[in-house]
Amino acid sequence: MNECLCLACAVFVSAPFALAREGKSAYRIAVPDKPSPATTYAAAEFQRLMHAISGARLPIVAESKIGSGPAVHIGMTRRARAIFGADTPSPEDGIGMRTGARDVALVGGNERGTVYAVYVFFERYLGVLYLANDCTIIPKRRTIALPAINHIYAPPFMYRETLYYNSTAREIAVPQRLNGPTTDCDASVGGKIAFHPYVHSFSKLVPPEKYFAEHPEYFSLVGGKRVGESVHGQLCLTNPDVLRIAKEQVLAWIREYPEVPIIDVSQNDGNGACECDACRAIEAEEQSPHGPILRFVNAIADEVKLRYPDKWIETLAYAYSTKPPAKTRPRDNVIIRLCHAGCYHHGFEQCGLGANLTTYLEGWRKLTRRIFVWHYAANFAHYISPVFNLDGLAKDLKAYAKYGVNGVMVQANYQGPGGELAELRQYLAAQLLWDPRRDPAEIRREFCDGYYGPASGDVQSFLALMDREAARPDSHAFGAWDPSSTVRPEFVSEGMAILASARRACRTDEERGRVDKLMLPLWYMQLQWPEKYALKRDEAPAFVARFRQVVERFGISHVCEGGAPNMAAWLDGMAKRYPAQP
Questions:
Q1: Where residue 29 sits, what CATH number does that domain have?
Q2: How far is it, in rounded angstroms, from Cα 169 to Cα 186?
Q3: Which residue from 20, 115, 212, 336 lies 20 to 30 Å from 41 (Cα-Cα)?
């Protein structure tokens, strides 16, 4: 990871815990005599960051050899245990930071929590910012003096994931406290929240290629015909053989992946709910298409609990099945993953486009305390186009915490780097997933100041312009849409002027490249719809060439959701559309 070093020094008043004075330190880093891999990693990161900030390199010592000198205790050493007493952090990624006598203790309620405690310590008390995979802000402070500390915290969302391509590497996922299954987080950093399969598992539980030819009755009846498809086709959930096969497969998955805590039993993508008499009868009784799903899932969860009481079963409330059932409650070992449906621009609580989601959240909350949310945050038909959802995203994440949701995944451009505002949106989401009480405006300011440097003021003006577009009462968006219906020509022209000023303020090529990446969505609108956005034909070839340069510099591979990289084909199409003039 490249590190952006902030050279501004802070002025410190005298404090009882002087970790470093003029680049030297009397402190050592104490770890348990038999530290876990995650504790070893956390101690090494504390040592690295302290040295990067102050120049002081604190030795790492086993607690039995620490003696009586002052120490920073990483993990539950004996002295750390004495400092915390009965006040232990939550086992769901909780952290504890406390001072006692001359010692500092950083501990976690689990292995991840110990690592997170170190990163939060440097973020909270020493101004380190983990902004993006290509930028960590590390202030320079030769003297580090701390006040007395007593901070114990557990995030309300025990599962936190931003499905951006550049959020997977552990070098950024761990400092940003992201713990989802797509991250590269192994036991050395405390592991992650793992699922198997990820979602849409009906076609894996009872594979149509294996069973459909001889047993079409295992699959959903739609319009009088059995459908053996993995998209827009489901299972007949009242067929006892389907339940038997699914139970056997789930138990086989648990044996095959013993380290995975959550097994997914969820509907395939699309629609296609079974319309047979038995399934329809349950739907009518439960007043929801989720009725047959939840009864099926509960039966599997009961079997799993008998044999594996520490495992969870997750199921989707998605597409046709978001409404909670009237009678059946999820078992205690069942997680409901409710899929987002609401206006990107205004947030689901502020806009009629999300009225059902509010109702369904309230309904599921009455039935269970284990709710995850699958939240959408990009235009999946146009990854590069402007999306005016920064304010709406922040409102929605705060609302999920209010409704008692305890896991969120924010899905955006997961297929390649460089989605529109990817770095900022990832940072904003990660910060609010860790602590939804934070002020989104403050998060945006600190990101812009660190990531764009002297261009920060102009970039924030550009983001304010986006906020004004989002606030328009007639402006709505969700999922995948034609961006020319939501992006006004005035926004493109004003945005271009603001970002041109931002580029002039940049001092380095790195800063200019980051501003160029902000311009891509505006260039995209002009190239796609030249008449609406006033692109002059004689200027278009230069726009295409500039677009290609930025895309190649940042490795941007996708212009929209799709299996194979499609940016190169789109650019080739633009080059043919706007050939260079002789």
A1: 3.30.379.10
A2: 11
A3: 20
| Contact call for residues 216 and 226 (beta carbons, < 8 A) | yes
Place of tokens 């559309």: 577
Residue 276 lies in a domain: yes
Say how far apart CA 55 and CA 141 lie, in whole Å.
Answer: 8
DSSP string for 372-428: EEEEE-S-TT-TTS----HHHHHHHHHHHHHTT--EEEEES--SSS--TTHHHHHHH
Query: What is the spatial distance between Cα 281 and Cα 238, in angstroms, rounded to a whole number?
Result: 10
Final residue belonging to a domain, choices 293, 313, 333? 313
Residues 138 and 228 in one domain: no
Torsion of CA 150, 27, 175, 370, to 10 degrees: -40
The structural domain count of the chain equals 3
pLDDT exceeds 50 at position 485: yes
Residue 4 pLDDT level (bands cut at 50, 70, 90): very low
pTM greater than 0.85: yes
Map residue 68 onto helix, strand or coil.
Answer: coil
**In a domain? residue 23:** yes
Give, for 315, the enclosing helix (H) or strand (E).
strand 312-317
Last residue of a domain, one of 276, 298, 313: 313
If asked whether residues 129 and 220 sit together in one domain, one would say no
Give the pLDDT mean for 116-136: 97
- Give the orientation angle of helix 540-554 with respect to helix 509-528, to 10 degrees: 130
**Omega before 16 within 30 of 0, i.e. cis:** no
What is the spatial distance between Cα 20 and Cα 36, in angstroms, rounded to a whole number? Answer: 27
- According to DSSP, the residues that pair with 160 across neighbouring strands are 408
- Residue 322 falls within a domain, yes or no? no
Domain co-membership, 230 together with 293 = yes
Tokens of 149: 């500390």
Comparing CA positions, the residue from 185, 20, 403 lying closest to residue 175 is 185
> Is residue 272 situated within a structural domain?
yes
CA distance 358 to 372: 14
Q: What is the pLDDT of residues 344-386, one digit of tens each?
A: 999 999 888 888 999 999 999 999 989 999 999 999 999 999 9
Cα dihedral 558, 561, 565, 570 in deg (nearest 10): -60
419-432 burial, b for 16+ CB within 10 Å, e for fewer? bbbbbbbbbbbbbb
Q: pLDDT band at 10, cuts 50/70/90?
A: very low
Tokens of 203: 């076609």
Q: Which residues pair with 98 in a beta bridge?
A: 105, 150
What is the extent of the structural domain holding 520? 454-577
- CA dist 457 and 451 (Å) reads 12
pLDDT band at 580, cuts 50/70/90? confident
Residues 113 and 231 in one domain: no
Residues near 226 by beta carbon (within 8 Å), at least 6 away in sequence: 212, 216, 217, 219, 220
What is the SS3 assignment for 556? coil
Q: Give the per-residue SS3 of 8-64.
A: CCCCCCCCCEEEEECCECCCEEEECCCCCHHHHHHHHHHHHHHHHHHCCCCCEEEHH
